[in-house]
Structure formats: structure tokens, C-alpha cells
Design goal:
The longest helix is centred in the first third of the chain and has 17 residues. 46% of the residues are buried. By secondary structure, this protein is an alpha/beta fold. The strands form two sheets. It has an eight-stranded parallel barrel, surrounded by five helices. Strands 1-2 form a two-stranded antiparallel ribbon. 37% of the residues lie in helices and 18% in strands. Helix 1 crosses helix 8.
């Protein structure tokens, strides 16, 4: 689980930015991600469900180089083949995606593998299979996944206590509500619109990062 010359750790999840092209409004994805990195984002995930394989590969190449420049881990959502091809730092898998052991065999021991988990059972299984971190939620209602049911603070806390690997909360998190996650045991938050939908992406990241640090 090495990133560059250091090992991946829970601190990398502090402010985990997940991309969404619907917020570009004419800007380039790399441009928006760099604005987020300047604001203190600690990890970046390329998550673009509507991109073709070729488009995804091209964007992944650009973001891989950008994140390497800022010494921030770069993760590809779902697509293990693209993650391997561009030498991304890792991949994030949903419950219906590739399983962890297969992804590990393909990517190698030095890559980061994250898994989405809503229950203690899912969390424990992912950990036992070799996941490096969990994304747990949706902790609040979210427009990014409108069909996702909100996960209670109690359930989030149980997931954090059940596994020794770091957990990032995800789903509807903003600078205004993140304090409600205090005491849950999370290592950070994964966000989309709280950064990329804001008029000043850099300042939004700065503000949210400071709020998150008070929660941890």
C-alpha cells in the first residue's frame, strides 16, 4: 500500500474529492481538480460513469500526473483495467463491482484498494479480503446518488469500530453538516458537490478541510 515513497494511511482520507463532470460548466476536469488540490484535498477519485473507456483513460492519465505532482493519491472508481493501465495509485470498488482479491491480483500489493460498505458485515468482509480503506454512507441525503438511503450515525460508528482499516464517510456532506459526524471514528470525508459545485473550489476545499479536522 505504498504511495510514492510513503505508505497510504488514514490521513490520506481527510478530504477525499470525487469528480463529477456535471459541475464543469465549460471548465476542464483537470483544472477543477487542481483548484481542489490547491485547497488541500488529500486524495482524488476519478468517478465518471458516463465516460467511454477511451475518455476515461485519457482523463485518468491527466489526473494521475496532476496528483503525482501534488503528492496526493489518485484513485480510479470501479475500472481496475484503467487503473492498472495508467498506473493509478489504486481503485475504489462498489459492492457490485470487481471483488477485492481479483483487483489485488491484477494491481499488486503496493496499490490502494477501497471498498464501499454500508453494513458491518460488508465492512468486515472487505477488510478480510484485503481492502485498505472503506467508503461508508450515504450519511446524509445526496443529489449525487438520490436513490441512496441515509445511513445513521450509529451504523457509521459501528462500521468504524468493526474494522482496523480507515473509514471515510460519504454522501451529502457539507461544511455545514460535517460536525454531526463527530465521534463516529471516521478518518475523513469523501465529497463531490461540497467542493466541485461551489463557485470557488479552492476556498470551498480550504473551508471544508478545516471543518473536518475539528471533527476528527
Amino acid at each position: 500500500m505504498r504511495f510514492g515513497n510513503r505508505k497510504f494511511c488514514g490521513e490520506d482520507l481527510l478530504l477525499y474529492a470525487v469528480t463529477d463532470r456535471s459541475f464543469l460548466h465549460g471548465a476542464a476536469l483537470c483544472e477543477q481538480v487542481e483548484q481542489a488540490l490547491l485547497g488541500g484535498v488529500t486524495m482524488v477519485q476519478l468517478r465518471e460513469k458516463e465516460m467511454s473507456g477511451r475518455q476515461l483513460f485519457k482523463e485518468a492519465e491527466k489526473l494521475r500526473a496532476l496528483c503525482a505532482h501534488y503528492q496526493v493519491p489518485f484513485i480510479v472508481n470501479d475500472n481496475v483495467a484503467v487503473a492498472k493501465k495508467v498506473d493509478a495509485d489504486g481503485v475504489h470498488l462498489g459492492q457490485n463491482d470487481t471483488d477485492v482479491p481479483w483487483a489485488r491480483r491484477l494491481l499488486g500489493e503496493d496499490k490502494i484498494i477501497g471498498v464501499s460498505a454500508r453494513t458491518v458485515e460488508q465492512a468486515v468482509l472487505a477488510w478480510k479480503q484485503g481492502a485498505d480503506y472503506l467508503g461508508t454512507g450515504a450519511v446524509f441525503a445526496t443529489g449525487t446518488k438520490p436513490d441512496a438511503q441515509a445511513l445513521s450515525l450509529e451504523c457509521l460508528t459501528k462500521v468504524c469500530k468493526a474494522v482496523p482499516i480507515p473509514v471515510a464517510a460519504i454522501g451529502g456532506i457539507t461544511a455545514d453538516n460535517v460536525a454531526r459526524l463527530s465521534g463516529s471514528g471516521i478518518c475523513g470525508v469523501a465529497v463531490v458537490s461540497a467542493i466541485f459545485a461551489q463557485p470557488d473550489i479552492t476556498q470551498a476545499a480550504v473551508r471544508l478541510r478545516e471543518k473536518v479536522k475539528k471533527v476528527l
